[in-house]
Amino acid sequence: MAIPPPPEAAEWGALDGPAKRARLLAVSHLVFARDGLEAPMPALAAAAGIGVGSLYRQFPSKRELLAALVIERLREVTADVEAALAGSTGAWAALKAFLWEHSERSIGDGVLAEAIAATQVDPQVKRARACLNGALERLLDAARRDGDAREDATVLDLRLVFAAARAAEGVEPGAWRRALELGIDSLSRRGQPSG
Q: What pTM value is reported for the model?
């Protein structure tokens, strides 16, 4: 199945650098979703309707392309966390809403999970992940200060909740929702162990 560029897409030569990069990232995500991370660079270029040289000018290697996909997504998630923090719903409600929205979006995105695993040692990916972790820590800290989140809850716990939800989806379609509900309950102050 070919992945054509969107009908409203401008000709490649008319695009500036950031627009070319954005188009390549969008098309690459679709190709990786269809063919896996093993999809060769020529297939990515063909799906974008460009020559291989044009792809390599934007991304000199597949590793750099994967890292760019991951960094873009981590920045989007960081912005979502910052927006949740700035909201007026209260930290615990914002944290729960973020967990649900992020899970809903990411459960079916195996490409991103694979790409994160493949690029976790990349210095730029590490920096983007550190920014996300910092934002998550601020949101979690606000929920702890409000008395709604467990005192011992950590960002690692949030990652474990996401991992459990993803794993539950493999057990039974839709089971991620129950796993996430249980995970959120385990983060709440009322889930705090008594001893």
A: 0.85
